[in-house]
């Protein structure tokens, strides 16, 4: 099915089909401010400098977004060695370690940093705690790029933990000088559980002033918590490697409501919605709205006669562009500036 725009009049009103079968469209859902910014950065860089533009790792964890940008001339690489010396490279929203930044310098690469400011906040905290002599415990998934980047800020004093068993096994030089940080996209409940375990083991442990789990992760989980009890199934639009999307599935399942992660409408299995009257739909922070609309249309085609948008809370966060992009736009020839207008 081709993605198409869902007109506002299609929301909050009955369409052809059974009114007994309804769709609840959760809000907020989908793109967060960090993802909007990262995708804009790649698009503006392509418009301003022309293709190819190299991007280290997936700019955000969504296959539709990555394929779309690749079609416009972005080249996604796993490591900087794959970028020709002197070329322009963009760091993904998940951030990079100082070792990667150093490597880019050695290779003479022109860097544009699309790291989400809320990931940068965690990096800054890691640097601060390490400078103050703390042992750092980073709660997160060690194979995730964000965790690799944060750990890289203070690799010799940082240990990553993902389970309470790993917390129990922690060994540090001074149990009274320990600080914790978390990945930005964890489950709020899981993070609370882990932090409680850390506080039990290290009663004097300190943490960030404000939680590291970002507003977008929290808001999307809160929306699922508010609506899951009234739905038979929660469909989460997002890619397999998207941490916050996976957490949304877990939040729903923990509340006893079946939930499935889908990249696109075609992934929906007939048995998931057999005899199901209410389907709730949400989307991870890196999943574009066009895919959500596709899912809504698919369900309408299956007889879901009512589509109701359920706004659990307003969300109006925006991040500014990085200075490299602002300067590039300002100094670009007039024709290139027109393209980005
Ligand atoms: S999910 Fe949160 S931390 Fe990640 S890019 Fe979005 S706002 Fe930033």
TrEMBL record:
Pathway: Isoprenoid biosynthesis; isopentenyl diphosphate biosynthesis via DXP pathway; isopentenyl diphosphate from 1-deoxy-D-xylulose 5-phosphate: step 6/6; Isoprenoid biosynthesis; dimethylallyl diphosphate biosynthesis; dimethylallyl diphosphate from (2E)-4-hydroxy-3-methylbutenyl diphosphate: step 1/1. It is an enzyme of class 1 (oxidoreductase). Gene3D superfamilies: 3.40.50.11270, 4-hydroxy-3-methylbut-2-enyl diphosphate reductase, catalytic domain (3.40.1010.20). Pfam families: LYTB. (2E)-4-hydroxy-3-methylbut-2-enyl diphosphate binds at residues 61, 94, 144, 184, 242-244, 286. Its EC number is 1.17.7.4. InterPro entries: LytB/IspH (IPR003451). [4Fe-4S] cluster binds at residues 32, 116, 214. Dimethylallyl diphosphate binds at residues 61, 94, 144, 242-244, 286. Its cofactor is [4Fe-4S] cluster. This is 4-hydroxy-3-methylbut-2-enyl diphosphate reductase. It comes from Granulicella mallensis (strain ATCC BAA-1857 / DSM 23137 / MP5ACTX8). The lineage of its organism: Bacteria, Pseudomonadati, Acidobacteriota, Terriglobia, Terriglobales.
């Amino acid at each position: 099915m081709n993605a198409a725009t869902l007109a506002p009049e299609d929301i909050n009103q009955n369409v052809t089909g059974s009114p007994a079968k309804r769709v609840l469209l959760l809000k907020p859902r989908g793109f967060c401010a960090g993802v909007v910014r990262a995708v804009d950065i790649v698009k503006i860089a392509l418009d301003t400098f022309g293709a190819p533009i190299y991007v280290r790792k997936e700019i955000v964890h969504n296959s539709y977004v990555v394929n779309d940008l690749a079609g416009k001339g972005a080249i996604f690489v796993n490591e900087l060695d794959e970028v020709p010396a002197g070329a322009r490279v963009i760091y993904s929203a998940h951030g990079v370690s100082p070792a990667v930044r150093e490597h880019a310098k050695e290779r003479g690469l022109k860097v544009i940093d699309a790291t989400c400011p809320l990931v940068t906040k965690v990096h800054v905290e890691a640097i601060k705690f390490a400078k103050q002599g703390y042992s750092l415990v980073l709660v997160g998934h060690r194979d995730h790029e964000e965790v690799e980047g944060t750990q890289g800020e203070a690799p010799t004093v940082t240990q990553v933990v993902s389970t309470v068993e790993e917390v129990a096994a922690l060994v540090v030089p001074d149990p009274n000088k320990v600080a914790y940080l978390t990945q930005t996209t964890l489950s709020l409940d899981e993070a609370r559980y882990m932090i409680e375990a850390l506080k039990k083991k290290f009663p004097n442990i300190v943490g960030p002033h404000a939680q590291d789990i970002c507003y977008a992760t929290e808001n999307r989980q809160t929306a699922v918590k508010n609506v899951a009890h009234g739905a038979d199934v929660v469909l989460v639009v997002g890619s397999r490697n998207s941490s916050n999307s996976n957490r949304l599935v877990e939040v729903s399942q923990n509340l006893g409501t079946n939930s499935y992660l889908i990249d696109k409408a075609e992934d929906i299995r007939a048995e998931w919605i057999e005899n199901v009257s209410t389907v709730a739909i949400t989307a991870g922070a890196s999943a574009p709205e066009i895919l959500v609309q596709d899912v809504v249309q698919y369900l309408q085609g299956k007889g879901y006669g009512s589509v109701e948008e359920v706004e659990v809370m307003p969300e109006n966060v925006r991040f500014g562009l990085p200075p490299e992009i602002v300067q590039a736009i300002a100094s670009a020839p007039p024709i290139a500036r027109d393209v980005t207008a």
